[in-house]
Amino acid sequence: MSEAIIALLRAQQDDWFALVKKLSKHYRCHRCKDPTCCQIACQLTEQDVGMLMQATNKNPREFFREYCQVTKIGLYLKPPCAFLRKEKNESRCIVHNSRPYMCTVYPFSSYPGMLLNVDICPMSQDIAKDIKEIVDELGIPEDNEDPRGKATQQMLGVLDKLAPKSGMGDEEHMNIMTGVSVFRILLERKTI
Predict the structure, then answer these.
(1) pLDDT score for 56
(2) C-beta of residue 111 within 8 angstroms of C-beta of residue 173
(3) What is the rounded CA–CA span in Å between residue 135 and residue 84?
């Protein structure tokens, strides 16, 4: 991968994180009794590992043995999250101030322009509902009987209308940019 592409991806990641931080001020975690977000594998960055080792007071060998799993695509916390503590009717993260990047941006993906787990996360459903209002205003036809298919078709229609292909040739880059465009419009509506 060329240095220019890597620089572009870093800039997109930084831009995405800044957008997510602004959007997150308009949505609140539902503080689920049994949070599904803590049941999925959480990818770790080098910075995440350092912060978590410090928060848990573990040396690298202990930390990796107790909390991590390595896959072909990266290093992950073993699910379910060992840092989730259930107390009465509420769950809480015992390393909240040192939580991984992926947890910080949840239910947004660490990959720019994506929203995670719309089918299981109430906060993600709140965000999707607001995006659906944008879809409805644009009048995207629902041409599939399956609810998930409908949502997918609607989002594709929104993405095409909000940021049509410009002939740049890099479809992945365009997908990122169109996804980010949707969230920018959402932020504008929340802050007006």
Answers:
(1) 96
(2) no
(3) 36
Amino acid residing at 147: P
Name the pLDDT band for 169 (thresholds 50, 70, 90).
very low
Check pLDDT > 70 for residue 119. yes
Q: Could you tell me the residue range of the domain that residue 55 belongs to?
A: 3-191
Domains contained in the chain, number: 1
Strands 84-87 and 74-77: unpaired
**Exposure of 112 in the CB half-sphere (CA atoms within 13 A):** 23
Distance CA 79, CA 100 (A): 14
Pairwise CA distance, residues 145 & 180, whole Å: 27
Claim: this prediction has a pTM higher than 0.85: no
With b for 16 or more beta-carbon neighbours within 10 A and e for fewer, the 51-73 pattern comes to bbbeebeeeeeebeeebeeeeee
Task: Tell me 115's DSSP state.
Answer: B
Question: Between 46 and 128, where is the model more confident?
Answer: 46
